[in-house]
Design brief:
Layout (H helix, E strand, L loop, with lengths): L6 E7 L8 E7 L6 E10 L2 H9 L10 E9 L11 E4 L9 H4 L25 E3 L2 E3 L11 E5 L3 E4 L5 H4 L5 H12 L7 E5 L3 H12 L4 E5 L14 E3 L8 H8 L6 E4 L4 H10 L6 E4 L14 H4 L3 E4 L7 H13 L9 E6 L3 H9 L5 E5 L1
Parallel strand pairs: 10-11, 10-13, 11-12, 13-14, 14-15, 16-17
Antiparallel strand pairs: 1-2, 2-6, 3-4, 3-8, 3-17, 4-5, 5-9, 6-7
The protein binds adenosine-5-diphosphoribose and zinc ion.
Amino acid sequence: VDKPNCITCKAMVAWEAGKDLVMEEVEVSPPQPHEIRIKVVCTSLCRTDITAWESQAIFPRIFGHEASGIVESVGEGVTEFVEGDHVLTVFIGECKMCKHCESGKSNMCQVLGLERRGVMHSDQRTRFSIEGKPVYHYCAVSSFSEYTVVHSGCAVKVSLQAPLEKICLLSCGVAAGLGAAWNVADISKGSTLVVFGLGTVGLAVAQGAKLRGASQIIGVDINPEKYKKAFGVTDFLNPNDYEEPIQQVIKRISGGGTDYSFECIGNTGMVTTALQSCCDGWGLTVTLGVPKVKPEIESHYSAFLSGKTLKGSLFGGWKPKSDLPELVNKYMNQEIQIDEFITHNLPFEDINKAFTLMKEGKCLRCVIHM
Ligand code: APR
Ligand code: ZN
């Protein structure tokens, strides 16, 4: 077998925080040992890409982490994938060998965990360059490029029948929301919950709760446009419509606080509100949002004295390789909805429009077609 060569292709490169991405010709190096090179087919824009693009300091960089594609070539030692396999990328990998991968309680792989420095896990270098100068990765995925290189532990093989232009949403947002409802909170039938933030992540929590038979799903958002898509939400609350704090309204309409509350905004102030909105005794608050500012959480300790729990999560507790193929099957069997989250489809060169739509609160997911 011939060794794969360097590829030159188009990528949407971020040169500066908050500035429009620029289409560039980039060199994509061959996959190194245990890596695969992927021809990206579709990538959807997630709020976390925007948060990182606005607030981080590593540039030039190729963002994008919610994606589907086709394996173009494989590096040495890769046995799981062959050219032509269909895959989803994942921003936390699964090595299947570390303490966390072996534990049934965690998806925090210690080898392929969240990559924050813009380089590959194995050698702390980049696989992208422009005229020989490095272009940094994002979450070791970087799907805003026609081709990308990922660790083979950060990709999940999926059925050839599954539509790549839809299932890319399971690479992050929709899966994270469903997993928070099912794995992290383990919502039981007849229970009540409140979801703060009705973007894709929050609405996916609502969908997961509905499928578990929750009796009351309260959705809170400051953007009235977000009340159009129900996904099982039974009561909509806009905090701007009330004089009193929203947690008081929630307590009143849920008979003293909900069984569960979910923070799906990325605002630590709302974590406090979410804790105050769930009930004493067994109330559980789950965080999904990724804050841009003020990472500290405030709470009076009486919340915990009265029996409440605050629980964190990343990617809804899913172990990507072990669990994502089953979620794809659920979609194929029409047991979960994905299409309803896709409000826009755009060609690759229009990716900046997707950023604008999301910043202005005018979309759920924009799927970018490469
Ligand atoms: N109160 C209520 N709702 C708010 C507030 C607020 N103070 N601020 C923002 N929102 C709403 C927005 O109007 C939007 O509908 O929160 C929603 C967030 O949705 P998106 O921006 O579409 O984000 P999404 O992709 O769903 O991600 C949500 O999870 O993965 C993380 O980084 C991601 O922190 C983000 C969160
Ligand atoms: Zn691991």
